[in-house]
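Try it yourself: sequence plus cytidine-5'-triphosphate, in.
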Amino acid sequence: MSKQYIQAIQDPIFELIAKASLNLGIRSYVIGGFVRDYLLHRNVPKDIDIVAQGSGINLAKEVANLIPGHTKISVFKTFGTAMIRHQELEVEFVGARRESYSSDSRKPLVEDGSLEDDQNRRDFTINALAISLNQDDYGKLLDPFDGISDLQNQLIRTPLDPDITYSDDPLRMMRAIRFASQLNFKIEEESFQAIKRNVHRIEIISNERIVDELHKIILSEKPSQGLKLLFQTGLLSKILPELTNLQGIEEKEGQTHKDNFWHTLEVVDNIAKNTDDLWLRWAALLHDIGKAPTKRFDKKIGWTFHSHEFVGAKMVYAIFKRLRMPLNDKMKYVQKLVMMSSRPIVLAQDIVTDSAVRRLIFDAGDYIEDLMTLCEADITTKNPRRFKKYSNNFKIVRQKISEVEQRDHIRNFQPPISGEQIMETFNIKPSREIGLIKEAIKEAILEGEIPNQYDEAYEFMLKRGKKLGLTPVNNKK
Ligand code: CTP
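Structure, out:
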């Protein structure tokens, strides 16, 4: 028996499970993600799946009995599973089963079965690897589908005919792509073709589950790997048609535009090098989403995507709503970044002035750093001269942001003069003039005519009031 597998089950919890199984006279195995990730030298997961040839619930109860003190156990009777939390671990117990599926549901018909039956019903060979927790062969690897070779060859393969595996549970199409993206694996050709054939079955899967997988793809080291597979299999046009609509290059009168789909994938890969923030990566994925519906050809200026940022921000809401993603501050954050995604590049094309930077900080507020990260990722030009120019200009923008911010405190701008002060100074009631003066003060600060300070703003208010025919009655400077 290989020492390697014994090594995988060093945590004392496994001995307890082995003892509990012995007490009950049933056989048990650790299976799935724990074994896979251990063998891949990834961080060993804190959730462990145990399969028992017998009642998983009884085994969980027996394990809980063996742990001194009070151990929390959750029983899910309808699923025949139970979970215990022990220290940092979450251990899930299930009885080995055979499953058969009907075509209109993800919910299978379940019967008791052997370990092999249970391994058969699993999604991929690399997830069907099990290690014995039984006295007679403790630590033995049970690998009926040669998942070990697939781990070595970095291959996603189903234990059964892939058409059956995917049709039984169409979420597995997303999982296949997610694992390929996370682990940098290839999907076996037959499996890939089966996904293509079964794409329509994704319709029976809830949006929440789809999005869960999508998040994991987006969070992988090189998200384009998964996104590309989603596109090639046809899943992406089912899940995010707004994105696949960006694909393609049109030519009119000899003028073309870039393929905004492939460009987007590059941007997502670029940003993935600089941030692990899921929502910032989402913003990168959706930053050009408004370009498909706004695309026009103008004989004089060529291809335009007028107001695509604005349209895109609206689409973000529709996408989040449809996919049942949170419609909270995360959505607003993505919307804002999409809305502002062209601002820094416009800046960087020109000479970067302080006032333009102040306006950018004013509008972006606390999102300014993230916006810069997005825009830097957006430079995908293959022209080295242009690449250098934009990167340098962004460096200047970043430097100016920190200088201007230190001096002018524009981020989360609070007007130095309040509406009340204006009313008191000129002895006027709430009126249009107050708004005009406030706006003028803000503009003067952003334009750099006056610093963001009380005294200067006060003087400015007096002058501005005078222009509007107002006389100060209360000079409280
Ligand atoms: N499984 C399956 N089909 C699914 C989901 C899960 O066959 N649609 C099986 C696989 O054997 C998997 C195990 O159940 O390894 C546990 O599933 P889960 O915890 O969702 O995934 P992990 O493989 O543990 O991976 P991760 O934690 O990265 O999601």
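One thing you can check immediately is this: The first strand starts at residue 27 and ends at 31.
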